[in-house]
Amino acid sequence: MTEPSRLAVRKTYKLYIGGAFPRSESGRSYVVTSSKGDFLANASRASRKDARDAVQAARKAFPGWSGATAYNRGQILYRVAEMLEGRRAQFVAELVDADGVSARKAGELADATVDRLVWYAGWSDKIGAVRGAANPVAGPYFNLSTTEPTGVVAVVAPQGAPLLGLISVIAPVIVTGNTCVVVASERAPLPAITLAEVLATSDLPGGVVNLLTGAAPELAPWLASHMDVNAIDLTGCAAELAVTCEQQAAENLKRVLRPPNATPDWLATPGLDRMTAFLETKTVWHPTGI
In what residue span(s) does the Aldehyde dehydrogenase domain sit (predicted)? Predict the structure, then answer.
């Protein structure tokens, strides 16, 4: 008698909303396959109701996160980088499966992702000094400009860079005090799901980052039209979808970060644009001598 071969457990991954892992309220899921077409897992297909729940969780988390010190936010991002590096092997395997790249290339992308988090963590208590100003005015006043987070930001993550691209759009949003609802890559959602597990076991408060898996054409227009979303990043949207989302966002005067004209080089050192895109400038006048 030979031992029967073991059947692998087919995983169905959940969403990440408010620090918890709920199933989609619709009960839908879809099959995630490797670059060679092999089955990898099932992922939840988020619905509009899930998107609304994620926005509600992000709004609830906003006062505490925006009220934290910039230094504390930097510490937490650094902690996320530490934990992500601790699961490097899993991320490498997922990138190999998703993109069909070599293990060496996947390792470089995983390392660049950790470095990107550390880079943004270092900016947490510096971006305000760089973008703020003491303004000269004609009168006996101090005139000071300071930066404040915009609020809840919806993010459509890039489809072709499921880990480094994902971190490159999330980190600048949250390091400046915003909270976010992220639509992960539909084609390769597993790195985003593993990232959610990292976030859930780090010091990041629940609701600061909410990750939805599913179809961007289904979710993005509803996030663009949602009255409690203050801004939207359309980096991962195709041209036609981006136009639709911009039209929806115009109805409630959202800040919109348009998708780039060319495929971004995610390995390049980022500038400050993604951090400043979702910052407001507050100017205060104060009489001198008081």
Answer: 26-256
| Residues in CB range of 45: below 8 A, 6 or more apart | 24, 26, 28, 29, 30, 213, 214, 215
Confidence (pLDDT) at 205: 97
pLDDT per position as a tens digit, 213-252: 999 999 999 999 999 999 999 999 999 999 999 999 999 9
What local confidence, expressed as pLDDT, does residue 174 receive? 98
Quickly list H helices, 150-258: 164-175, 190-200, 216-225, 239-250
Determine the residue type at 37. G
pLDDT, position 137 = 86
Whole-angstrom distance, CA of residue 236 vs CA of residue 31: 20
Contact in structure between 122 and 74 (CB atoms under 8 Å): yes
* Domain CATH for 64: 3.40.605.10
For residues 105 and 47, give the distance between their C-alpha atoms in angstroms, rounded to a whole number.
34
Tens digit of each residue's pLDDT (9 = 90 or more) over 88-127: 999 999 999 988 899 999 999 999 999 999 999 999 999 9
Asked whether residue 62 is assigned to any structural domain, the reply reads yes
Q: How many domains is the chain built from? A: 1
Show the domain range for 210.
14-23+40-287
Q: Kindly give, in sequence order, each residue whose CB lies less than 8 Å from that of residue 182, ignoring residues fewer than 6 positions away.
A: 154, 155, 157, 166, 169, 170, 192, 209, 210, 211, 212
**pTM (whole model) above 0.85:** yes
**Residue 8: inside a domain, yes or no?**
no
The token pair at 39 is 């089955």
Assigned domain for 77 exists: yes
Percent helix, strand and coil across the chain, each rounded to 5? 45, 20, 40
Q: Is 164 domain-assigned? A: yes
How are beta strands 39-44 and 29-33 bridged, if at all? antiparallel
Q: How far apart are CA 173 and CA 265, in angstroms?
A: 19
